[in-house]
Amino acid sequence: GLERLNALGFQTAAMALSDRAIGIEDPVLKEVDKLAIVLGTEGDGLAANTIARCDYTVMIPMQHGVDSLNVAAAGAVAFWELRAR
User: Fold this and answer.
1) pTM (2 d.p.)
2) CB-based burial of residue 15 (10 Å sphere; 0-12 exposed, 13-18 middle, 19+ buried)?
């Protein structure tokens, strides 16, 4: 799927916790003309190789002690934050 998205001109953003992740509010994401948000399953999340192959790794900043949202909530937050480009 990632190859198809890239062929269609999309850059990809893996929603995942990682040391290299940028916040969903990072202005660089709003500069991308065609951005596909890649969400994983609840519980397991995205496979490490999928995250590595995406252009960006993105996280939703949260309070300490909260490490994740369910996939529907994470998608809603990401789409809301990136809506105005």
Assistant:
1) 0.86
2) buried
